[in-house]
Structure formats: C-alpha cells, structure tokens
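Lecture 7 notes: from sequence to structure.

We start with a single chain of 239 residues. Read the sequence below before looking at the structure.
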Amino acid sequence: MSTENIFVTHKPDPKWIAVDGYTLSHLHPESNAHHKLLNDVLINIRDQGLPDISTYPVLAKFLALQCRIGKVEHALEIGTLGGYTAIWIATQNPKIHVTAVEIDPRRAEVAGQNIKIAGVADRVTVIVGAGLDVIPKLQEEINAGKRPKFGFVYIDADKLNNWAYFQETIPMTLPGGCIFVDNIVRKGNIVCEEYQGDEGVIGARQVIEGAGKDERVDAVVLQTVSEKNYDGVLMAVVK
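Now the structure, written as tokens:
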C-alpha cells in the first residue's frame, strides 16, 4: 500500500519509495482485509484538507505490531490528526482500546468519521483538547481507579512539548510499557548547528537529552527513511 499517489508534498529518495512499495506489497498486500480501508482513511484525510503529516504506513504498522508484541490492552496517542495510526493499532489488535488526544476540533471530527467508518469506534476514543490539559485528567482517572494504566504511548503532536508530554505520560505507563516519540531525527537536523533554533529540533533534542537522564526509562533513537521522509523515532521502555 504505497501512498506515493496520495501525498505529494515530500520529496524523498526514489529508492525509499520503491522499498516501501515493494515490502508493503508483500507484507501488507491488497488482499489484506484492512488494506483498502487504511488507504481510504489516508485519502479521506487528504480530501478533508488536513495536512500531510500522518504517520507513514510502514511505521504505523510497526507501532501496531509493537502493541501486539506487548499484548497491550490500552494505548494512548497524543496527536491523532485524522485517526490513521489509531486505526492501524486498533485493526491489528482486536482487544485493544486506544485513547487518542487531538487539540484541533476539525481534525478530531475527521478522525471520528474515519474511526466510525473503520468499524473501531467502540475501541478508539477521541478526546478533544490540548495534550497538557488532557493528560493530567487521565492521570486523575488512573489514580482514582477509573482508568487502567497504558501499555503503549505514541507522541506525535506539537514538537516543543515533546519533553512535557514524555514526562507526564511516564507515570501513566505500565512497567515494561513503551513510549514512542515521532519526528525525532528531522532529516538529521538535530545535529546541524544551523537548525538549533528550529522548534522541532529544540523539542527533539530536549526529549532525547531528557530521556537519557531520566532513570525511570531506558531509551533509544531509531533513524528511519521512508516514502515520506528521513526522520526517526525515540522509543523508551518504562522501568
């Protein structure tokens, strides 16, 4: 399921596109029950005028499989946009419940539409609000025994708040659970002096350096290339 003809704003290396297309054609072929559904979600996100910032298919499936490996029952997504990643996670994990947070009401509306069409509305809940406002409320519910802790967290929201989101979600995550932060490598700009004033780079470096000092987690950064871009994710395991 290549999105080469859906997204047109990025200019990746043609080999990255070819590799994603080849591998997905075998590992997520058109015969897969969810292939058309997930592709239609991306098309609807585009047609609804939302920005081209959905997690790309290979990474979305990787995250969904991480949930399966960890036998995750409850996942948290900060920044859902049109619901694409949440739908991937839900369709690949029939027993999981995803709580997705989105600050923009219009994006949340589109996400809700996609989630309903995907048939996972009973297992994906979209909460509209700023992440730093919603997270404490979720923590209160956990403390009160009204909500279980999460086994998986995916942070893909405003980048300057990466470290704040990361710190706030650690106590909400089960020991052995994973926290992923997207868009960490930023085309390698995190190590380029001329980009040190860029908000995305600032946010990425804060969470990398902060996680390295935080004794509650063990973390690593994985560089990625894809049909969309050269970037990477930070993965942290809660101790």
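The helical segments are 14-27, 35-47, 57-69, 84-92, 105-117, 131-143, 162-169, 199-213. Keep this in mind for problem set 3.
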